[in-house]
Design a protein that fits this description.
29% of the residues lie in helices and 26% in strands. By secondary structure, it is α+β, with helices and mostly antiparallel strands. A five-stranded mixed β-sheet has the order 1-12-11-6-5. It has a five-stranded antiparallel β-sheet with strand order 2-3-4-7-8.
């Protein structure tokens, strides 16, 4: 009942944003949802050039088979320990930064000579070379991930270059767009639930009312198409033997996802220097509509 109520409330709130005609979601297609301004804002905040980060550090992408295996191994795990565990980290006005690469600096903790207004000149000179961070990392199917990597390069205390997200950047366009409802602060992970609720509403907007629709729940892997292909695809993870109703609902979702423009979802960057261009969703479909939930949120509730 609570699931259905959530969908109804969000549908009423988003009513003015939903067009009457089915539209292919190209870059210009968001205009048809009165979300063109939010799409432009999302693109602006997501346009960071991550060339050096990808060239020097995050050179490997997790394969689709590995993504599926990670789901089978970790879907029910609560991960009752901090994602910062085992890493030197900084908690500052820029947010919580998990450090992956840093100068050796005679073994001193990073907070001693980085972003410390009381550091000595000699300690400042220890900042020499690259620093790589993940901002507000989270557990996700056995990985620790963030859509907000940051690279800073120093030369004996002087900043020489910076690449990546410093303050802004949502994990997906849907997380950005749902902020029109009133989510104006918080971290990228805190906006996931609102984003997936909005996704479910848009996904089911072209379906006719179905008061006798049987409820079905299934899990999917949303992933960025590999290689030179652009766009997204969806793989069914559970159930292993779907009935006709589940298969029909899955195919409807698949068609929706295949219309999304490249860049709708930002890839995640992991603590083992890999890229995870994917999401894990649990989907419930019933007479009230569609409810999409991210497993990052689901598993966090289990802690």
């Amino acid at each position: 009942m609570k699931k259905g109520l959530s969908i109804i409330i969000w549908l009423l709130a988003l009513g003015p944003l939903i067009p009457t005609d089915a539209q292919v979601l190209s870059d210009d297609g968001w205009l048809n949802y009165n979300l063109n301004k939010e799409w432009q804002t999302y693109q602006y905040r997501s346009k960071d050039d991550l060339y050096l980060l990808r060239e020097k550090y995050f050179r490997d992408t997790i394969t689709i088979d590995e993504m599926k295996a990670a789901f089978r191994a970790n879907k029910d795990k609560p991960f009752n320990f901090s994602p910062y565990s085992g890493h030197d980290s900084i908690f500052s006005f820029r947010g919580n930064l998990l450090n992956l690469v840093r100068p050796k600096a005679k073994g001193l903790p990073l907070k001693r000579f980085y972003m410390n207004p009381n550091k000595t000149k000699e300690e400042a000179k220890l900042l020499d070379g690259d620093l790589v961070f993940l901002r507000y990392p989270q557990h996700y199917m056995g990985y620790v991930v963030s859509p907000q990597p940051l690279l800073e390069t120093f030369d004996k205390g002087r900043i020489m270059g910076r690449e990546g997200v410093i303050m802004w950047g949502e994990a997906s366009f849907f997380s950005q767009a749902q902020r029109v409802i009133g989510y104006l602060d918080g971290t990228w992970e805190g906006h996931l639930r609102g984003g997936t609720l909005m996704m479910g509403i848009l996904m089911g907007k072209d379906e006719p009312p179905q008061p006798n629709r049987p409820e079905r729940t299934f899990s999917v892997l949303l992933y960025e198409k590999p290689g030179a292909q652009k766009g997204y695809d969806v793989a069914l993870l559970e159930p292993n033997d779907p009935d006709d109703v589940t298969q029909r609902d899955f195919l409807w979702m698949k068609q929706f996802m295949e219309k999304l423009p490249q860049g709708t979802f930002r890839p995640y960057y992991t603590t083992d220097f890999r890229i995870l261009p994917a999401r894990y969703y649990r989907v419930t479909v019933n007479k009230c509509g569609w409810l999409v939930e991210d497993y990052m949120v689901i598993n966090k509730k289990k802690r």
